[in-house]
Amino acid sequence: MEEQYDNSKNSMPLVSIGMPIYNVCSFIERSLLSVLDQTYDNIEILAVDDCGSDNSMDIVKHLQIEHPRGSAIRIIRHSENKGLGEARNTAIDHASGKYLYFIDSDDYIEPETISIMVPEAEKHHADVVHTVARTVYDKTHRVEHSFPEQPYRVLKGKDAFADFVCQDHRRHVSFTSWNILFSIEFIRKNNLHFYPITCEDILFFYDYYPLVEVAVLMPNVTYNYLKREGSIMDSARGGRIPVKSIKKWFEANRIMLEHSFQYVDRPFYCVHCARMLKQDFRAVCIALRHRKRFDGKLTDKEICQNLRHPSNYAQILKFKRYRLVNLFFKILGSLPVWMCVRLSYIIGKAIRWI
Asked: How far apart are CA 295 and CA 306, in angstroms?
């Protein structure tokens, strides 16, 4: 069922809030209430039913009927389970608002989240507005800031945001898709969509960040990210590791590298490459160190394919920053497979990446 939201009676722009829902019955009520109870009035909630097996959607339907603002909930049901990336694509396709904000259905947001972000987006005609998230641990309820604290900034102009992101190897903004207010025009103009694979958040980030021309960064903590057990990295600390998950991780890295070459003439490209190859090298080191725990086969060739630099030597020698880092990864990825594997294993063990 879909209800059309009337925006004509409200002078503030409509904000569409995309919420993929799949087997989150223990968390969905708190998450959805945090959205329904926003101090910002003009919202629509796109509850994307991704065909889970629990009673999550029963809770959503109950709130749709009983909550004073329940009519803002639009339920969009998939014909089959499609995964988180496709659920977010459904939100993009169905959004009626001027802005789109994603929230995962086990997380929750602060009451003034949208009220804080929208005026900044309107004032600066922003493509994106970033705020800060904190991590809340599911079992212990311990709270910590999970993303870099940032002063207020407005970044305008081609490459201004990309240059900020790529000023060095550190993470200066969130690489997620949630807790960001996107201009829906920006998303649709650039035909941005999520990949239906693992790491869809970071793939989406690497697709959109070079395209941003106006970004607002705010120090406000607006989002609570629930940390649950069961990730690949949790598995790596003990027990069997699903090789299928590792291969999907590598596939995401491959896509990011393939897309990198379109930025070869942009000033941030040298750091962009160094950042991604460092990330890929870390994935390779983890795979090599824990491959005895895999529940299937992962060949040396499959592992080393993650270290192929998108540029040639001539291009790398022209880099103004991180030239040696890029050269190292270029040489490493060009070695014979057995040598690449052995050297990566030795370096990874010395660095002791997980």
From this structure: 20
What's the CA angle centered on 25, arms 19 and 29, to 5 degrees?
65
Give the pLDDT confidence of 135-157 residue by residue, as tens digits.
Answer: 998 877 788 776 767 899 999 99
The phi and psi torsions of 235 (rounded to 5 degrees) equal -65, -35
- Contact at 8 Å (CB) between 236 and 286? yes
Of the ranges 102-106, 125-129, 215-219, 303-307, which one carries the lowest mean pLDDT score? 303-307
Q: In sequence order, what are the residues at sequence separation of 6 or more whose Cβ sits closer than 8 angstroms to the Cβ of residue 77?
A: 49, 51
Tell me what the pLDDT averaged over the chain comes to.
90
Identify the three-state secondary structure at position 18. strand
Q: Are 31 and 103 in contact (CB under 8 A)?
A: yes
**Bridge partners for 75 per DSSP:** 47
Asked whether the beta carbons of 127 and 183 are under 8 A apart, the reply is yes
- Is the separation of the CB atoms in 261 and 310 below 8 Å? yes
Give phi and psi for 292, each to the nearest 5.
Answer: -65, -20
Q: How far apart are CA 5 and CA 24, in angstroms?
A: 26
| Confidence (pLDDT) at 225 | 93
* pTM to 2 decimal places: 0.89
Count of alpha carbons within 13 Å of 210, Cβ hemisphere only?
Answer: 18
Both tokens of 165, joined, read: 């992101």
What is the distance in angstroms between the CA of the first residue and the CA of the last residue of the chain?
A: 46
Question: Whole-angstrom Cα distance, residue 268 to residue 114?
Answer: 31
* Digit-coded pLDDT (tens) for 263-318: 999 999 999 999 889 988 988 998 898 888 888 888 999 888 888 899 999 999 99
> Does the pLDDT at position 160 exceed 90?
yes
Q: Please name the residues in contact with 319: beta carbons below 8 A apart, sequence gap of 6 or more.
A: 269, 270, 326
Q: pLDDT-based confidence at 229, cuts 50/70/90?
A: low
Amino acid 46 reads L
Cα–Cα distances in angstroms (integers) from residue 266 to residues 160, 224, 315, 320, in the given order = 11, 35, 12, 12
Q: Are 19 and 103 in contact (CB under 8 A)?
A: yes
